[in-house]
Amino acid sequence: MISFRAGLYAVLALVVYGLSWYYNGQLIPLLAAGSIVLMIWGAIVWWPCLRAGLIWPRGFLPIFMLLWFVWFGLTLFWSGSPYSSWFYFWVLGALPLTFLIAIMIPEPVAEQFWVWLWRGILISAWILSAMALWQYYQGMVTNIGLANLRPFGPLLDTNSFAAWLNLLFFPVLALYFVKDGRRQVSFLRGGVHLEAFFYLLTLSVLLLAFFSTSSRGGLLAWVCTMPFAVWGLWRQPAARSRFLVVAALVIIAFLLMDYAHGYDLIGHLSPGYITSNITTVSRKLMWIATWHMYLSHPWLGTGIGSYFLNYPAYRLPGELASAGTYAHNDYLEYLAEGGLINLGFLLSFAGILMYAMYRLLYRAGKALQMSDEQRLTALGLVLGVFAITGHALGNFIFYNLPLSVLAGLFMARAWRIYGTSENTQPLLPKIGINHGFIAQIILLLGIVVASWNLLADAATYAFLSDNTWLNSVIKNPRQRTTLLLKVADTLTSLRPLATQPHVYLANTYLTLAERDTRMDSASRRSLVQAALHQYEQSLIGIPQQAGVLNSIGTLYLTQGKLLGLDATQRQRQTLLAWRRGLAINPESISLRNQIAQLAYADQGDVKGGLTFLRAGLARPLFPYPRSELLLDIALMQWRADEKTGAEKTLLRILHENPAYEPAVSWLQSIHRQAELHSGDR
After folding, report:
1. pLDDT given for residue 514 in this prediction
2. What is the C-alpha to C-alpha distance for residues 389 and 484, in angstroms, rounded to an integer?
3. What's the rounded Cα separation, in Å, for the pair 247 and 265?
4. Beta-carbon count within 10 A of 521 CB
5. Exposure on the CB side of residue 287, measured as CA atoms within 13 A
6. In terms of C-beta distances under 8 Å and separation of at least 24 residues, what long-range contacts does 139-147 make, across chains too?
7. Any transmembrane segments, and where (predicted)?
8. Global pTM?
9. Which of 579, 520, 521 minimizes the C-alpha distance to 546?
10. Comparing C-alpha atoms, which of 541, 536, 484 is closest to residue 508?
11. Do the beta carbons of residue 401 and residue 94 sit within 8 Å?
12. CA–CA separation, 594 vs 609, rounded Å?
């Protein structure tokens, strides 16, 4: 029975870990499936604990993790973007949640559970290393270019992938010392310990994969963590020879994998390079913008997972090296998204890791009453989590779901080894709950509600965001459209905060009102009102949707007469929606141009329109949008009969972006007309 339960728990944990690999903040069905499996695993583990009245393990860390998870849940109630925060609640909350599940596994089962789980984690280390080496090889044979010759494994970011490899490296390193310490005969005399040799091979492939990423942040985290590993392992018998072997592997891996880059990894850590390199300069600008974001919402922040929605309004000129999705500093992003309390939890977690290392390095042996093998095992796990926590100062780490899941599992195992083994008396009777089934029902209801929402989110993504798979299932376009309309209508009821179903319905209603000429005015008005209502409903879950506000403004402009608005009211409502959208995303060229046309040029104030358009050039714009804005300026200059100025603007576009085809075509047309006029003379 114990073996079955341990195996079941290990399978569920590994399924959660595996499903998290390719989520990357985008594939919502993977997040939904992983979170539901995590809750099922948690329910199976917690069910007998609640029946027994909830016997809670003593110690600070379990209480801290519980409070941290509860805090993430509470932030959903005041988030400025509750629908976006919902997804990041599961990503960031995976760390404390997996910890809370793993520590509640009964002791006899927990040991066997870890044996099976660790085997799966070791297999994942080999799979990830193989992915890295294969991606590196593919980049080499296809001449992908040095800047892109950096494997990222199943993630979208190579630095986060390097952090993942660091997370795995240190526990494997500690276990190599533990297993090799059992060898009675020296290696040169044929004393090979097969398990230790396997860990040595695992270290080798991890190091090859790690250096193939050429991650400066990963290397700095590794360098800063390695002294603690040396400190903890140095007193072991024959530690010097083992460290020489590891050092040789490090040197070989670096020489092999950084060769294609000209060994520039070390040079990229020099102060001169860091202060001048565009990626680090952009990080500084991003951190300043993130600080400004925090100052605008100093108490409770903007809501977890809302950074990418708010960042466009704070992006500083000169920062064009990032997509603006994450702050590349989890501590600052925690501060901006959740205020000082949110940052306090992350800093406290870092402090807990430091205290754990202090206990394992200074209070080992009799003080903690554990064997050296247990101490080193726990130390390796803590060091792995410590490495990624330090790496989070320069990259987004905890926003990667597999890293959060694995960090929670590692901390649970480490705490089980070095923490107290005592439990409290049943807690539920102390708070007046004398029947454990009441807590079980509450747990079950919570899982059902959360799973209901997650399944609705997965359906929203599958049917409305990425529904190309449906083309092969339903060949008839009319039938597909009818099905999608029914799905969207159902989802608006099942998941009111989901934005995509509302937008889909609004677009459909508006299309019907515009295209069906046989429809009477009353029916068209009803459809337009329904479309406007759906657009407004979509802003409840995520208010920072400049595109939706653009659509609302266009609706007022084109269909406002049907709604009973006069010309002045239509213009006022349109400009109000468009200006709200531009405030959210000042980089939007279409919104800026539309406002310039309606508010200025159409009123006869072309110069005012030009001034408004030119103000957009002060915003941080990527090359193509910048060319688009300059083209809009040239068009308005032409409209104002400033033909010479328009030509100069077009030439400026080609100077900055020679491949911008609209400017090339327009200049060619101007020159052809000039030649025709000169020929007529």
Report:
1. 85
2. 43
3. 17
4. 9
5. 15
6. 140/260, 146/260, 146/261, 146/262
7. 7-24, 30-47, 59-80, 86-105, 117-137, 161-178, 190-211, 217-234, 243-261, 340-362, 374-390, 436-455
8. 0.93
9. 579
10. 484
11. yes
12. 10
Q: SS3 string of 179-231? A: HHCCCCCCHHHCCCCHHHHHHHHHHHHHHHHHHHCCCHHHHHHHHHHHHHHHH
- 560-589 burial, b at 16+ Cβ within 10 Å, e below that, comes to bbbeebeeeebbebbbebbebbbebbbbbb
Q: How far apart are CA 105 and CA 411, in angstroms?
A: 14
Helix H or strand E encompassing 492: helix 477-494
Q: Is 659 exposed, middle or buried (0-12, 13-18, 19+ CB in 10 A)?
A: exposed
Neighbours of 546 (CB within 10 A): 22
Q: Which residue has the tokens 């597909």?
A: 480
Q: Which residues of 149-174 are buried (b: 16+ CB within 10 A; e: fewer)?
A: bbbbbbbebbbbbbbbbbbbbbbbbb
**Number of other CB atoms surrounding residue 493 within 10 Å:** 9
Cα–Cα dist 340/352, whole Å: 18
d(CA 588, CA 585): 6
Is 574 within 8 Å of 602 (Cβ atoms)?
A: no
Smallest Cα–Cα separation from 403: which of 570, 165, 201, 577? 165
Backbone phi, psi, residue 57, to 5°: -70, 140
Q: Report pLDDT for 659.
A: 85
Q: What is the chain's alpha carbon radius of gyration, rounded to the nearest angstrom?
A: 30
**Interval 639-674: pLDDT, tens:** 888 888 888 999 999 998 888 899 888 888 887 876
Task: Give strand pairing partners of 57.
Answer: 423
Pick the closest to residue 384 from 370, 403, 364, 359 (CA basis): 403
Q: What is the pLDDT of residue 674?
A: 67
Please give the distance of CA 640 from its chain centroid, rounded to a whole number: 46
Query: End-to-end CA distance of the chain, in Å?
Result: 101
- How far apart are the C-alpha atoms of 35 and 87, rounded to whole Å? 10
Judged by phi (left if over 0) then psi (alpha if -120 to 50, else beta), residue 329 lies in: beta
Instruction: Using alpha carbons, list the distances in angstroms from residue 623 to 427, 647, 656.
Output: 61, 19, 8
CB-CB contact of 177 with 239 (8 Å): yes
Q: Is 234 in a helix, a strand, or coil?
A: coil
- The identity of residue 621, as a single letter, is L
Helices 401-418, 82-92: axis angle to 10 degrees equals 40
pLDDT reported for residue 370: 77
Q: Which two tokens stand for residue 301?
A: 């922040």
SS (H, E, C) 540-557: HHCCCCHHHHHHHHHHHH
State whether residue 423 is helix, strand or coil. Answer: strand
CA–CA dist 528, 516 (Å, integer): 12
Q: Which residues contact 121 (CB under 8 A, 6 or more apart)?
A: 17, 168, 406, 409
Token digits for 363?
Answer: 């209070």
Q: What is the DSSP string of 36-97?
A: HHHHHHHHHHHHHHHHTT--PBPSHHHHHHHHHHHHHHHHTTT-SSHHHHHHHHHHHTHHHH
* pLDDT given for residue 186 in this prediction: 57
The single residue listed with the structure tokens 């890791």 is: 353
pLDDT (0 to 100) of residue 188: 46
For residues 7-18, one letter each, b for 16 or more C-beta atoms within 10 angstroms of the residue's C-beta and e for the rest, the string is bbbbebbbbbbb
Residue 55 is predicted with a pLDDT of 86
The C-alpha atoms of residue 121 and residue 99 are separated, in whole angstroms, by 16
**Element containing residue 144 per DSSP (H, E):** none
What parts of the chain have a pLDDT lower than 50?
A: 188
**Which DSSP letter does residue 519 get?**
S
**Nearest partner of 247 among 261, 233, 264, judged by Cα:** 233
Task: Provide the Cα torsion 122, 126, 127, 129; round to 10°.
Answer: 130
